[in-house]
């Protein structure tokens, strides 16, 4: 059995994913107050990404909404999963790959960020449609998730991402205030998450902050 209560005595298990990406339970709330200020100021993708690379524990805590990672969480920034194929065809490098180990084994997510300054929806010819930022993020996630699913053995064996199978995708973008006074937008966002079966979700930064405020439990694992 593995005890994580005392990190000073903790011996990292050899069968875990690389220790460089492991998130120690005691640091998951570091940086939350300043991150909330960045979101309230509607900072763009670059500023938010740079901050989360310093405080990766916030991303681990955010994934609480999936109810995974009670036995360990790993956050891998800017990992190239496919090199460039030609001078015109770029490689694939997701913003983050996030993994969690729970009682049922490992679960992996590909996370794409857009800015808190971006809208989720826009109106065109009287219809509510996804904004350019969200369309771009969804297409990026589809590429990442599809390729990661086809390259499972490489990600498991070369990058040591244990039990890596078909990952799920999560796009973090915008503010909840955009949806509050418009039932059409609320319904469309809920419909997307429902019809995608949770495999490619859209979450606001407000939802991110709420998830980081939920309880974090660390269990023994073997």
From TrEMBL:
Q: Which Pfam families match?
A: SduA_C (PF14082)
**Annotated InterPro entries:** SduA_C
Indicate the segments forming the Shedu protein SduA C-terminal domain, all copies: 45-208
Its protein name is DUF4263 domain-containing protein
